[in-house]
Amino acid sequence: MPELGSISAFWDAAADSFDEEADHGLRDPGVRAAWADRLRSWMPAAPARILDLGCGTGSVSLLLAEHGHLLVGVDLSARMIEVAQGKMRRHRRQVMLLVGDAGDPPPQAGNSFDVVLTRHLIWTLPDPQTALRRWTSLLRPGGRLILIEGRWGTVDDDMPYTPGATPLPWSGGVTAEHLSEAVRPLVRDLRTEPLDDPVLWGHPIDDERYALIADI
Length: 216
Description:
Strand order of the largest sheet: 3-2-1-4-5-7-6
Low-confidence stretches: none
Number of strands: 7
Distance between the termini: 31 Å
Oligomer: single chain
Shape: globular
Structural class: alpha/beta
Radius of gyration: 16 Å
């Protein structure tokens, strides 16, 4: 798809400075510890097979690998994956990292995962409903879908992702209520957990941020 090329280029350009945001790079010890605690509370016992979609520079994949889990990361941006690979080498962690469409992960990513995880990904997708069905199909029976999402108050819903691209259905994010409605028919049960603690983000927030945790 032509639009995927422009989207990939957008994130390639952002990759080298991406980790400067506190919740992206997880460099601040307090932010890192806060995410470690949240992730630990949502994950099954290690070692679990986890698919981290839209993994970016690999900060969350690295953190989960350090917890003893088995990670596969997928991102559309080749430059993001390059940065993530460097991070894994420096920390001596074995994580499979693939360039591909996180909305429709490549076959080499595998299937029958214990957890499919995304963080601030779904707003970027041209067809989030299809992506949700695809993600749940990659989980083993009893597996868990974890979506860390939000509804941003500063984004124009009609703004295209990149110049000339088609506007996205959930540009500006998606509320917990709306995302729960979309996920509920695909899973056995679900819950949402607010993520309004400023320690998670490195600063106070005034928009809706949450995790949706669903079991199939």
